[in-house]
Design goal:
Elements: H1 11-14, H2 19-36, H3 40-49, H4 56-67, H5 87-97, H6 103-106, H7 113-123, H8 126-138, E1 143-146, E2 163-167, E3 170-178, E4 190-196, E5 208-214, E6 220-226, E7 238-249, H9 260-294, H10 310-340, H11 346-371, H12 382-392, H13 399-411, H14 414-434
Helix pairs in contact: 2-5, 5-9, 5-10, 7-8, 7-9, 9-10, 9-11, 9-12, 10-11, 11-12, 11-13
Bound molecules: flavin-adenine dinucleotide.
Family: Belongs to the acyl-CoA dehydrogenase family.
Keywords: FAD, Flavoprotein, Oxidoreductase
Protein name: Acyl-CoA dehydrogenase family member 10
Length: about 450
Amino acid sequence: MEGPAFQCLPPWVKAKLSPKAIECIQKVHDWVENECIPAEEVMKEQLKKDRWQTPPLMGELRRKAKARGLFNLFLPHHFKESPGLTNLEYSCCAEIMGRCYWAAQTMNCHAPETGNIELLAKYCNEEQKKKWLQPLLDGTASSGYSMTEPEVASSDPTQIACRMERDGRDYVLNGRKIFGSSLSNKDLTFYILMACSDPENPNKWARHSMVIVPVNTPGITHVRNLDIMGYDMAPEGHAECVYTNVRLPAENIILEEGRAFEIAQGRLGPGRIHHCMRLIGQCERAYELALIRSIDPRKRPRGKLIGEFDSNIERIAQMRLEIDSSRLVVLNAADTMDISGNKAGKYVIAQSKILVPSMAARVIDECMQLYGGLGLTQETLLPEMWTYARFVRLADGPDAAHRYQVGRAELQAAPVFREQHQRYQDKRNELAKKHRLQSGRALL
Ligand SMILES: Cc1cc2nc3c(=O)[nH]c(=O)nc-3n(C[C@H](O)[C@H](O)[C@H](O)COP(=O)(O)OP(=O)(O)OC[C@H]3O[C@@H](n4cnc5c(N)ncnc54)[C@H](O)[C@@H]3O)c2cc1C
């Protein structure tokens, strides 16, 4: 564990890695460094030819990665379909994958596939697994996750309004969705969609259900594609779709009616950690570009290298501190999930989701600044990296919503502190009396 694949890992993490994980991290590192990063330009060029078809190079790399045993590494070890890594071990792989934006996809470890696969593995019956999960694991199908709607505040999913009604042996969907993968993507096979099946239920957490919607089902209209900060995000993309009397067989429901929130919770925890670790990988890559620019002999404002200015030396130190401390937070979240389960890890997962995307956007922005004007152009990957960091601040729920939850949970501890401080005060009064001092003043 002396090589570059492990150099960013703290000793407590290294101590927990199994021999299998050590081998896997090394293989992922070699794959990303030798097969993905050098192919970035070719991938871009192929995509220019057909924006909505997965580039042939991606197919080629996926086949090769699968043959090398680098497929589906994310699935936690308690699933029978899992290759056997813990969340902590996989997080180390995810950071390396993050060094190239699309490397995770070559290993079938990309969003929203990872969350969808985990959801299907956890909540589907055997029949459904055969039909929907297996093709995703094999890499022969591709899925989207469709929850968000334009007409409600989707950060509060109890408001999701797309209607789902039982009609004989079918369910019928009516509503409007945005985001999720675009129907323009020729490889998209199905959505996992959240809809409201029981709007009158007094328990607002039991009103919604999750269903599997094949994209070729009649009644789905593709309204438009959405750009993210000017990028079309092809070939996956994001779209607005209208569902008009979309009929699905009743067996497409996941688990049963009213259990969407239970399912959504199971889906989101690990996915958030994966995004965060990949963003840390992106930060490392951006940081390397900033370092290279800092010693570029052609760039000497006022006769000095960019990295010779005290202010830039401090900036570099600050970036290092922010990346390293964020990594500790996410690895701690992954370890907590391994030791105590996803539910117990809720708080540390939220910590990661709040901290990492803003940290990454800040660090990448600083790297763009050090790089000068070209840092904001297609000459570097920095604008795409920044866009990724910026969108993760919103995707899977805005950070404000997570802060609100963390803050509310923290406030529940206030009465305990109040009692504790009362005990301090009682003790102070007692001591003041003993030492004949004036008592009764509260020292908070
Ligand atoms: C690139 C990208 C990819 C996405 N991918 C998907 C996808 O695959 N599937 C999918 O279904 N959706 C996806 N989304 C949508 C995303 O999940 C939603 O945009 C997000 O959940 C917020 O919902 P909203 O847009 O309705 O905003 P709203 O719910 O209206 O929230 C707007 C703002 O209100 C504030 N706010 C909300 N709650 C609180 C709170 N509790 N405290 C304080 N302030 C608060 C925040 O500032 C928040 O950003 C994606 C979005 C982006 C940008």
